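Input sequence (109 aa), recorded before submission:
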Amino acid sequence: MPSIEYVYNSTFHGGHHREYTMHDLMKVWKWTGYDIIEANYVDTFWPLSLKKFGRLGASRKSKEEKSTFDVGFHIFNWYDWLKLFPMGLCKSFPFLRETLLVICKKPFK
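Predicted structure, token format:
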């Protein structure tokens, strides 16, 4: 993958999209002149519980055919037991979480 510097400074980047790291995002926000207020890793998937098993996010399928989710842990749901290991890894190693959240503000001039 090209470096974040190359992607940021090029007028056109027709290659593959890259997965950004927290370090990459911090660089970009500093280059744009924003002040970083907070930077966090967030879990948005593992706290979910499978309510209805279907196609996960399949496009062009009816709503009835897609999986739906609920919040929390349900003791009789097999999916909730399977997610305990990856959820524990994400709690132990926050950088494994799937969402990067950076809150910034533009300084007043």
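Checked by second reader. The first helix runs from residue 4 to 9.
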